[in-house]
């Protein structure tokens, strides 16, 4: 059956490319992907497949119900674009000013649509159900995953698999990781309230710039002296604003920063530490402060058994030339939420063509990827779904084990 899957996917490769290029030319921002959602839903309707629209927003969920009973496996692809001007010189460049598919979500969507079409053709041989989750708004917190889950996209799902095309790794490479693979990405803001005044009379003021400067340095102690060095963490201040004239002492100063972690306990610890240090620094300077900490996506934590299963699957996929453990990425991904509800794994599919020496990274105005990688992603995801169902097939006909009684 896998051989059949690969052959059918090869036959439909051109369609995959044309879908990807169409979507690339017509990108839509997170939470505004109305036309893309309609395009996806129409594709399923034309195939005569059951499809649910407006799931948790612009999300789309389609289903392939196999001829035989069994488990349910979900595959997920995101479909939003970014507020970036496309600077590539290709025939399929974005036609929407200031909006671009600069992360490869057009490729994810084309991959899943064509894979669904092929799996639908094989449904007589499937033992179970395949749920196709087309998720809106991955790029912008709170993201689409959380609302799609609340709206029931994971109902009855036993396991989930997802991939991200990765344009800086060579085509043919699959990267996996057991445990945390992508970080929790949070944002914090601190406003120091001092007491402004004349630059010539500092003794009559509480200089917010001096206090905020001390605070920036004091916050460096969190990663270097508070968090266990075996637990990766980042605390970065990306913005320090206290605009004034040359002879005026600042009344207020505002710091904005990000925290990246892989462990929920470390995440909690850092959130509390920032406040404790801010409180102490302000107390020493007799200033007040306002602190807000906004949680982004949680870390993407892959399940062990499903990741090991994926490694075995990838070994059998033609065109996969190497399989390696990924280093954890400090970037965020709302696939994290699915993995909090069901078992599964998220992996990277290399998408850098051989002739490309210095690929532009994701979110770059000249970002592009090797379209051949879509075929590898489809084969890997398709094999995972088929094999998962085959391994767990006909559960209803399986006699009860002692532990089930
Ligand atoms: Zn992205
Ligand atoms: Zn992405």
UniProtKB/TrEMBL annotation:
Record keyword Metal-binding present: yes
Pfam families, sorted: M20_dimer, Peptidase_M20
Single GO molecular function: metal ion binding
Keyword Manganese: yes
GO term, biological process aspect, one: diaminopimelate biosynthetic process
Cofactor: Mn(2+)
Residues that coordinate or bind Mn(2+): 103, 105, 139, 164, 363
All residue ranges annotated as the Peptidase M20 dimerisation domain in the record: 187-279
Cofactor stoichiometry and binding remark: The Mn(2+) ion enhances activity.
Annotated catalysed reactions: N-acetyl-L-cysteine + H2O = L-cysteine + acetate
Entry similarity comment: Belongs to the peptidase M20 family.
NCBIfam families per record: amidohydrolases (TIGR01891)
Protein known as: Amidohydrolase
Origin species: [Anoxybacillus] calidus
UniProt lineage: Bacteria, Bacillati, Bacillota, Bacilli, Bacillales
